[in-house]
Amino acid sequence: MRITITALGTRGDVQPMIALGKTIQKPGVEVRLIAGSNFEGWIKGHGLGFVPSLDMESLMNSDKGQTWSESSNNPLQEVQVMRALLHEHAHRMYLPMQECAPDTDFWIAGFTSEAYVQAVTEATGKGYLNAMLQPQYPTVSGEASVTPLVPKRNNPLNRLMGKFVERVLWSILKETTNTFRTSHLGLPPHTFGSYQKARRKAHTLFGFSPKVVPNAPDWDRICHICGYWFLDEAQQDSPSAELSAFLEAGDAPVYIGFGSMSHRDPQHTLNLILEALKHTRQRAVVASGWNSADLQVRSDQVLLVSSVSHNWLFPRVSAVVHHGGAGTTAAGLRAGKPTLIIPHMSDQPYWGRRVHELGVGAAPIPRHKLNVARLAAAITQITTDPAMHQRAEALGRHIRAEDGLKNASDLIQQLSS
């Protein structure tokens, strides 16, 4: 059997899918990933097959990508930018799927590729399931709603909002999905209703902990919360001599990094961080993440790194500050560290809200509202609140005791046979 996983996105989207692929690959089951061309060596190094697709990280560093990541204060602009990007680049996402269709026996679709995978499986008669890193499924539950109207309660308005969001997402996907269906697969176009009816037939596996996102009371039996899908990589967990020396030179620092979220003026963002750290008198490891070799740090209390293994570093810091990507959020919670999320876009505001609701982090600060005073106050809170630290440590123990990969693997074996 050959299973194809669509892992379209940035590193945080791909990493859990590599972990999932390694877990389900065994004698008689060959797994390959469709992912950004920049991840070829990484994926092949884990013994998985690879098919190149859109390099999302390069896209995020483009002008349009930066506009997208800076659109958190304007949902309409975010939708417009997403639609324009998809119109320009969708063919680089779905054509590799068409290429893989003839010799794929079963598909696993990520959030950004479900509509295209559904089309391919409809055309070929093969099965698929969804592997999601966020609870993108309508529900009355405020805790399990990415965009709730009543965040802290079960309320029908939350489910209504979830359905509205589905319509918005379909408005973004409609043109490219139907182009793929009609021009490449010979299928009739979907309406919103026919697409929803088709996708509700597929099971969805959620790669997060039920301690972080509780099971919603009205989710169908096709929804399964498995636990997180962590990829532990010993070969990438060796720190540089500079990082080791910095950690040993004083108290545990704060980690600050915004992952793949670009900014037009990275030095300005870095200066804001440095000023906030000066107010808090905290040491910090700052991951540049802005793809710039010209950033300047003039403080022996701050170490600037280009990249670092979250799995290795996070247990060694006092708290974590980041953009709220699903993977980075999972790594911080697993390490048992208090968290501050600076959401930029997409599902990041949801993770910021959940971290705060669980009492394991400060209230999120949207990127467009970030300033020195807010950042300094939040860093002070997550580094000095003992009750928050205790709750974060307890949640970390729960997450480390879960086996999300085994749970997912068992379900995949059952559903693909």
Gross morphology is globular
* Computed structural class: alpha/beta
Say what the CATH topology of the largest domain is: Rossmann fold
User: Beta-sheet strand percentage?
Assistant: 5-15%
Radius of gyration: 21 Å
Helix residue percentage: 40-55%
SSE topology string: EHEHEHHHHEHEHHEEHEHEEHEHEHHHH
Second rung of CATH, namely the architecture of the largest domain = 3-Layer(aba) Sandwich
Low-confidence stretches: none
The pLDDT mean sits at: 91
Query: How are the strands of the biggest sheet laid out side by side?
Result: 3-2-1-4-5-6-7
CATH class group of the largest domain: Alpha Beta
Please give the alpha-carbon distance between the first and last residues: 9 Å
Query: How is the biggest beta sheet arranged?
Result: 7 strands, parallel
Separate helix tally: 17
Q: How would you summarize this macromolecular structure in one to three sentences?
A:
The chain is an alpha/beta fold and 417 residues long. It has 17 helices and 12 strands. The model has no long low-confidence stretch (mean pLDDT 91).
